[in-house]
C-alpha cells in the first residue's frame, strides 16, 4: 500500500535525504533546523521524523544516532520529491560535444571517452555496453499446445536456428475453463499476430511490439508472451558475451559506504567476471521514469537490485538507440546515498547523445 505523506512530512523527508546525501552522517532535527528553512520547531521535526521512521522511510543505525533514509525513503524521494538537474544535463551535453569528436573517432573510442567523462561528472561507476549488431532476425514464431495447461513457444530465426521455451497457458480473463480445441484456435490466432508483426524484424525490436493491437479477447496472452520473447532474446544475446565498458571504480571507492574490503571485492568480481548477469540487468527493458521525448530511465535502489553484490547500491540505467531500436545501454552505479538529481541527468543526457551519435 503506497505511503501517503502530508506536505510537511514530504518536506522533512526531502530535507533529510538531501542532508544525508551531502554529509553521509545520520541526520538529527537540529541539523535540519539549522540547514533548511522548514518553518517549524525542532520538536515538530523530531515528531515528523518519528512518523517517517514508523512508516519505514527512515531508520536509526543505532539508538543514539540520528536518522538515515531507507530504500523506501529514497524511492519516494526519487519518484515524488526531486527532478533531474538541468544544470548538470547542460554540463554533460557540453562535455560530450566538446571533448568527443564522434565524426572522427571509432565507435569503441567514443564509448570509452563517454564512460570516462560520465564517471568523473557523476562520481559513480559508469557502465556502457557495446552496441548490438541489430539482433537476430525472426523468420517464424509458433505457439503449440503440447499437454493440458502447457504450451511451447517455438522461434525460428533467419539462419534457421530454432529456440523454444515451455510455458504455462495463461488463464482466461473471466476464469472460465476452455477445452483443448478452443485453446488450439486461440494459439493459432496469436501465432498469426506474432508472425504478421515480427517476421523479418530483429529480436531487438521485440520491445516495440504494440500488444494493444491484439484483439481484446486475447489480451491475456500479451504480457505472458512479451516476457517469454524477451527471455529468449536475452538467452541469445547473453551467449554472445557482450562487453561492458567500466569506468570510475576509483571514484566510488572513496565513498564511506565502500570502506569494507569484502564488499568492494564482491562488486569488482561482478564487474570483471560476471558481466553476463550485469548486462542483462542494465539492458533489460523495464518500467522506469519517462518523459515525452526523453529516454526511459530505470532506477533500482538497494534491495530492488536482483544481484546480491549491488543490493547496497543504486543502479540508474537507460538504453541508447539506433532509430527506435535499443542497441546498447548506459548506467551509473553508486551507493544508495548518491546525488539522484545529478545521476539521473547524467544518464539521460548521455543516452540522448549516444543515440544521436550512432544513428
Automatic annotation (TrEMBL):
An example molecular function term from Gene Ontology annotations: DNA binding
Lineage top rank: taxon: Bacteria
One Pfam family from the record: HrcA
Coiled-coil regions listed: none
Key words of the record: Repressor, Stress response, Transcription, Transcription regulation
Single biological process term from Gene Ontology: negative regulation of DNA-templated transcription
Domain Heat-inducible transcription repressor HrcA C-terminal: 108-344
Function: Negative regulator of class I heat shock genes (grpE-dnaK-dnaJ and groELS operons). Prevents heat-shock induction of these operons.
Family: Belongs to the HrcA family.
PANTHER family according to UniProt: HEAT-INDUCIBLE TRANSCRIPTION REPRESSOR HRCA
Record's protein name: Heat-inducible transcription repressor HrcA
Source species: Dulcicalothrix desertica PCC 7102
Lineage summary: Bacteria, Bacillati, Cyanobacteriota, Cyanophyceae, Nostocales
